[in-house]
Amino acid sequence: MKRLTFQAKGTKKAVEIHVKTEDLSLFISQFEEYIKANLDFFHGGKFEIIGIESSLDLEQKLSELESKYPITTKVVTRKKFDPTLLNSTNFTNYHLKTIRSGQSITYDGDVVLLGDVNSGGEIRATGSITISGTLRGIAHCGYPNNNQCFIIASKMNSTQLRIGENISSVGSQSFFQKEARIAYLKENEIKITSISEWQKRGE
Predict the structure, then answer these.
(1) Strand, helix or coil for residue 126
(2) pLDDT of amino acid 194
(3) Coiled-coil intervals in this record (predicted)?
(4) What is the largest CA-CA distance in the chain?
(5) Residue 200: what pLDDT?
(6) Omega prior to 83 cis, within 30 of 0
(7) What percentage of residues in the chain have a pLDDT greater than 90?
(8) Contact 73, 65 (CB under 8 A)
(9) The CATH number of the domain covering residues in 92-200
């Protein structure tokens, strides 16, 4: 498997891209693959590039990506890449795959899954879970007992959700969904709402 030249970390304001290489061409190539893997999911996305020195060449290449894809980028020099974060559960793993029926996969940290979780499949993570496709199976964030996390999916359909030790279920909603949904814990109860509504509430 090709070794990634960066780590992605999701925040409310932007996706932080922590660059681990000085090979600018390789980084740009992999970053573009990351965007193209599921363009609908990153439509209008904001990315902060961290850990690489700003230069005219870098700015030009990022500008070219912005002209090709509906994203915005910003090189943030005040933030430095911390190599100790590589083993931190705060970091986001990203994987391009579909979890099929009978499969159960566990990730250490947050995870962005560029694919679906089919009925009978299960995805677990010690941190939060973001799914760019349809969630039809089981999603368990905060595995086994971390309540400070959330689950996001472009579509949630006939799903069992688990946050830490809390369990809920979702009926068939995908037909009516116009935007991604988020499941989060509030007052020991799993709440499900649209991303825009969640952001308005500031929860």
Answers:
(1) coil
(2) 84
(3) none
(4) 51
(5) 72
(6) no
(7) 39
(8) yes
(9) 2.160.20.70
